[in-house]
Every structure is written in structure tokens, then in C-alpha cells.
Design a protein that fits this description.
This protein is an alpha/beta fold. It contains 15 helices and eight strands. The strands form two sheets. It has a six-stranded mixed beta sheet with strand order 1-2-3-4-6-8, sandwiched between helices. Strands 5-7 form a two-stranded parallel sheet. The chain starts with a helix and ends with a helix.
Length: 308
Amino acid sequence: HRVMIFIRNRVGCNSEYRIALRSIASLKQKHAGFLDLISIAEKDSGSITLETTGNLAIINISNQRRKNSLSGDMMVQLVDIVDELTTENAKSSKISGLIIRSKKCDAFCAGASFQLVKSAIYNPQRGLLMAKFMTDCLNKLRQSGLVSVSFIHGPALGGGAELSTMSDFRIMTSSPKTRVQFVHANLGASPGWGGARRLASIVGRKEAIRICGTAIELHGEEALRIGFADKLVDPSSDEVDEDEYSLEVCREFLKPYLDMKYPSSVRAIKKAIGSVEADNPEDSIEIEQEVFASRWFSDDNVKELNKK
């Protein structure tokens, strides 16, 4: 807080102030109160882990006992991963692709775990804290420089459906058990992790109202038809290792981006395009200009200019 006041005094309440805030704010700092709240919640199973291979990052969601619902510990792990992937440094600048998938489980994600809800998020005020936290986490990844794809096998329900809207692309399996369902209307609730807004950006306002307002089950063919899914695959063979299969399918899907010569430029371009969904329209313009400046006469740019 003191750092923010210092910056405000130095540069004033203008675009320079907003740029400075973007550069220093980690989600873990911003949402420390919520993270303290869930740290004392009833302990539960599950994990969210990060793998990296070359210029590709993989987020694995694993909570087989709870249909991959998110426990308090998993939300803490998620924010650490988001901060790591979205902090610009020498390591992150080499990563341009991101896969989000379930691991060792026949469900994509079922939102917040019931155990977490009943032990820590049991009133509107705490629900709002969770909503702000999860919205920030998912939006920060969607608006980051990573070209991302979700691999959806099995049900993506409630908050899990919202989580699937975080990525730029979605691959769904043609299995009958694979479905995306914004179940909130059936539960007397509404989306709270930013999923309604992101869904409208993906499929349009009218489709988003239909999907959320009637809690329909969205299976592969319809998801592909309306532009929610970008590819359908069929891992029907019993001999297929689902984790290896999801990795290879997603890696092949992202290959055009991963094969680009300069991953930092891919990140810059994706970040500029992702900023279209920023809350403040002025931020979108400033972000595009910032990333342009970061690449203009960079070592990569100079190398190419010297070839002319």
C-alpha cells in the first residue's frame, strides 16, 4: 500500500500510475486476505501443479476424489502458478504456450469444493472475496502473453466451466461424459469467477445468455458449432494414456505458435490482443504501446533489421 501511495505521489493519477501498478502487483499480495481465510479452512485433497517443457507450460488439475473441484490449497497453488507465469523475467520470456488440463481424472473441473465452501466461504461477503480472487487469477492468465488451450475431458461444471473460458482455445473430447455446463442457475446462484463475461466474449452475448440462463449441457458437436470449442478429438482406444494423449494433442494444436522464431514477440502480440478484455479501455491501448516499445529495437528486432 505504501509503495502505491509513493508511486501515486511521484507520477500522479494518470497512465503512468496505472502502468506502475501493473508492474508491481502480484495476485498473492493483492488477495492476501482471502488467502489467509482459506489457509485455515478444512484441509482437503488435490493439487494444481505446473510443468514446463521447452517453451510450453502445462497446468495440471488433480483432485480425483472430488471430480477435480478446487480445494483451498489448490487455490493457493493456482495463484503461485499465475504469478510465476505472468511475471516477466528471463525464464518466463521463453514460454509462449500454455496447456490447462485435468490429470489422472475423468473430470475437467467442478468448481470450488463443497468442503471449502462449507468450512470457509459460507456467506456473501466471503463469496465475494473468492469471486474477486478467482476472476483475477483467470483473467490474468487469459490476458497474459501465453497462447493457451484447455483440454476438456469429462464434465466441466459450474466454476469448472468458468475455468475453461480462461484459455484462448478449447479442445473437447467427443466422449458422451464430456460436457461443459454452467450449472449456476440450477443452484440458485450465478457465475462468479468471471466466466459469464469471458463466455460472452467467446460465443457472443445471446449464446452466453442461453448457455448460462438455461444451464444447458454443452457437448462437443454443439460446442464446436457455436465457437466455444475449437477442436474435437476422440481418445476412444483403451490403450491410450490420457495424460500423454492430452499433452500431444494440445502440443500439436499450439505448434504454429511454439515454432515461431521469437517467443518474446509471440508473448507481446498475445498480451496486446488479450488486453482487449481489460476492465479499463485505456489500459488496452497503453498495454499495446508498452509491449510494442518492449520489442522495438530489441535484440531480436535489431537482428532482423540488420538482415535488410
